[in-house]
Structure formats: C-alpha cells, structure tokens
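Dock flavin mononucleotide; give full complex structure.
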Amino acid sequence: MKITAFVGSPRDGNTKNLTEHALDAAKAAGAETQLIHIGKMSIAPCKACDACKKAGRCIIEDDFQEAEKSLAEAGGIIFASPVYFGTVTAQMKAFMDRTRTLRRKGVLKDKVGGAIAVGASRNGGQETTIRQIHNFFFIQEMAVVSDTKTAHYGGTGVGVAPADAASDEIGIETAKNLGTHVAELTKKLIK
Ligand SMILES: Cc1cc2nc3c(=O)[nH]c(=O)nc-3n(C[C@H](O)[C@H](O)[C@H](O)COP(=O)(O)O)c2cc1C
C-alpha cells in the first residue's frame, strides 16, 4: 500500500512540514510513503493543444511525466498546497490540468484522496483551497477522505514564515489525522 503526497509550495516551508506529519502518520498505519515536491519541479501549464486526445498522453515534455508516474502508482494520494488568493498555487493547478488523460483513462478512479492547505491567516482560505483539491479528486472519480474529527475537511494549517507551521499544534494534528485516514481507507480498498 503506497501513499504519495504532492506538495504544491515553491519553497521548503509550512505545507511540506505538515505533509511530512501526514506521511509519518500514514507510515505508522502501515503505508509505504513518498513525497513529491511538484512546486519545485518544472511543470508547465496546459496549453489546450488537445494533442493528448490523440496521443493518449500529454505531449509537453518536462518534469510532469515523472510526477504523473508517481500519481499512477499510488494507492492513496495527498495533495497539499499553500493558500494563494483563496485557492491552490499555480504550480499545483498546472499539475492538475496536465492530468487530463489520466481522467480519460480512469487511472485515478477509486484511489483515495486527502487534502492539506496552509494559509497565513487562521481563516485565510484553507477550506476553499481544500475544496479546489476535492473538486479535482471528484472529477478524477476518487474516494475523498477527511481528517475525521479535527478540522473535518483535511489538514488545515497556519503559517507566515516557512517554519511557522512547525509549532502549529492544531494544524499538525489535522495533518496527522488526515494521513491516518487516507492510509486506513487505502488499506480497505486496495489489497
Ligand atoms: C501569492 C501569495 C498569495 C497568498 N494568498 C493567501 C491567502 O489568500 N490567504 C492566506 O491565508 N494566505 C495567503 N498567502 C500566505 C501563504 O499561504 C502562507 O504563507 C503559507 O504558509 C505558505 O506556505 P509554504 O510555507 O508551504 O509555502 C499567500 C502567499 C502568497 C505568496
């Protein structure tokens, strides 16, 4: 059972920190884990060339292919993003849009998905950002899970400077609960 997390921040900061907590919890629940830092990779936005409709794959050659392979191999998937203007980062959105052929082929269907969002304000758009990630999971026909009894929607953190989330006890707890829940359902669904 493999759980892979995709971090959409362009820096080593709060989102990566909470994601590591989520993966540690998934590991404790029996999962093999991997973190892919897509925010630091070179993934261009979709240019709507529609070549993927014929080719069956995105024809833009960059770091996307490596990240796509990890997405396809995972049983459980965590998408983690800082809040940028109430939604995911441009880096994460570019990654989502490039997975169009995976949706057409049903590659992510019935995989388990959980979301993490970190903003500078306590109510700075974490829930709207998580909603954006959940929309992606729904459209990919995935099974969406929460962080259960803490924030309900997923890992939800607060931080301004990159190290702030390291002391966000509430955020850390939501991330751990999310990681555990993703692993538990993945274990039930994927043998
Ligand atoms: C372009 C930009 C837009 C941002 N928009 C928001 C926002 O709408 N709400 C919020 O609470 N924080 C916002 N922030 C702050 C980041 O979400 C916050 O600093 C977060 O901890 C960054 O995560 P990281 O350390 O993983 O990069 C914004 C930051 C940037 C750079």
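Observed: The pocket of flavin mononucleotide is lined by residues 9, 11, 13-16, 82-86, 118-121, 124-125, 159-160, 162 (CB under 6 Å).
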